[in-house]
Amino acid sequence: MEFQQMKEQFLALLQEQTLIYATISQPRQKSNELKRIKLKPIQLKGVYTIQIEYQYERILKHENVKLDAFAHHFDLLLEQFRQIHAQFTDQSIQIQLSKKNKVLWKSDKTQQQKQVNLSHNRKKQYLLDDATAYPFLIRLGVQTEDGKVKKQKYDKFKQINRFVEFIDDSLAHLPEDRQIRILDFGSGKSYLTFALYHYLKIEKGLDIRVTGLDLKKEVIEECNRIAQDLQYDDLQFLVGDINDYNEETSVDMVVTLHACDVATDMALARAVKWGAKVILSVPCCQHELNRQLNAPELDIMTQHGLIRERFAALATDSIRAQLLTLVGYETQILEFIDMENTPKNILIRAYFTGKKATQEERIKYDSFIALLNVNPFLQNELKNFM
Ligand SMILES: C[S@@+](CC[C@H](N)C(=O)[O-])C[C@H]1O[C@@H](n2cnc3c(N)ncnc32)[C@H](O)[C@@H]1O
Hints:
Mean pLDDT: 90
Bound molecules: S-adenosylmethionine
Low-confidence stretches: 120-124
CATH architecture of the largest domain: 3-Layer(aba) Sandwich
């Protein structure tokens, strides 16, 4: 098949609106910052639209393109990638391009007919459906008794859903042959801890045991009461300080959401020591670096208190991410939720791969630390792992 014919045939298939999803991969150049593309159909204001998800090393970007405008994007994507896997309702297609664009097209029509569900796709951004009553959301006051999301709790509902998406994405990194151990450090009122438990245990049926830890006794007592009422038997809450928590030898997933200042670092350090396969961390206020920062080269920024504070916060999260990379994690910084919902919007996601850090990664880290003239708490905690 000719290259041009392949393009026309693929676009003609898209016109039938039977696409379920597609992945475009294998960058023509290894150095390409864009690693992979995902396509999925969605309904936007009643119009069939293709959502293009651009997967960079550390971030995801989305673009919604009407079907008629997609050909142009497809051309650009084919300039960068050599492989397409597309699932349609009645067939799956694998397209492989050589460097010189010779085409290998394989189609498999032996599978069972699949369904496109655009309305569901639209909602799929919400893994927890806003039309379903969830006992834990009712109990936590996010939904009314008849399962409606309370107006003033809608942002919380969106945040919970976003978090559940991250949990869902991390499933492949969790063990399948034994109970999965999960810790939520600084769990506070535990909306997200309950959501995590509900999603993994009740919706996915996984064998998990979850512990939420927090300093606040009354809050923990209330969370335990709710867990008991809901008969969430493998969810427990403990009063304690992250830094003194030494009850575990091995944990699979560590979550910290808005744990203040170095409490996040303590939790990250614990996670690394326990060999956690998945770390999801949304940091909170940060003061440690702000206090230490001493970099005359950055004076025109840091002379302004507001900028100094923001810079210190971003530098802190960059340091955390790089340290996790240096100790064998594939680490990404992602947007937790739309800016209008919370300014504390960065999520550090790290999956353990055991990959040894390169000399270059180490040098980058060391020079950044030297520039800022700081001595981060997390670096000291992890020095034996680097
Ligand atoms: C801003 S709240 C976040 C609560 C919850 N994770 C959420 O996202 O809704 C931060 C929580 O971290 C807890 N915390 C702070 N430092 C801690 C420490 N050293 N050990 C345990 N919990 C801590 C606080 O008590 C507080 O409940």
